[in-house]
Write a structure and sequence with these properties.
Blueprint (H helix, E strand, L loop, with lengths): L8 H7 L4 H4 L4 H6 L7 H11 L5 H9 L9 E3 L10 E3 L2 E2 L16 H6 L7 E6 L6 E6 L10 E6 L5 E6 L2 H7 L10
Helix pairs in contact: 1-5, 1-7
Length: 187
């Protein structure tokens, strides 16, 4: 199954000014664990086919600039409490498009792993892990839009019976809303 990539120019444009050198952490761990080779059209198509979902254009565009990693801004503000915090969730790393690294969409601990091994709900594509070592994840939620639509971004909390908290209406808006951890530190 392959999909024509619809023009989501506005969402792609939201991320156009992000400088990969400033946005991503360059530690040896980040590069070794999360950052894969730039995905070709055929890799994107095959990963989408295996997952059964068309990936958001903004996500694919971002992964073509740098295919996964640990962002420097790792916190997403929330209006409701989660097991992680009263006012935010944290991102450990963002999975790239591919299969070669464990932390890639089709890697050993990629999207399907969380459904098959941890019992996470089958709502779409799990693309970011959290510092809780598997007890919460960030996903592209396709339940309302179908496999070809623009998924919203959600936090899924395993500790609270896999409760789902909507974070952002699109991947690009999720990325733009990430904040530095220091903004959430208590004095």
């Amino acid at each position: 199954m392959t999909w024509d990539r619809p023009s989501s120019a506005s969402d792609v444009d939201l991320l156009a000014d992000l400088d990969p050198q400033e946005w991503w952490e360059d530690s040896a761990y980040a590069l070794r664990t999360y950052t894969g080779a730039t995905p070709t059209d055929s890799v994107v198509a095959s990963v989408e086919n295996e997952l059964g979902f068309r990936l958001p254009s903004s996500y694919v565009a971002m992964m073509r600039r740098r295919n996964g990693g640990i962002p420097r801004r790792t916190c997403f503000p929330t209006s409701t409490r989660t097991t992680w915090s009263e006012d935010h969730v944290a991102v450990n790393g963002i999975f790239g498009v591919g299969r070669d690294l464990d932390n890639s969409l089709r890697g050993g601990t990629g999207s399907r792993f969380w459904n098959d091994e941890w019992g996470y709900p089958d709502l779409g594509v799990y693309f970011a892990d959290c510092p809780s070592a598997g007890h919460d994840m960030i996903a592209m939620d396709y339940r309302d839009c179908g496999p070809e639509g623009e998924p919203r971004i959600v936090h899924v909390d395993q500790e609270w019976d896999y409760s789902v908290t909507v974070l952002a209406p699109t991947f690009a808006q999720f990325v733009r809303a990430l904040r530095h951890e220091k903004e959430f530190e208590i004095d």
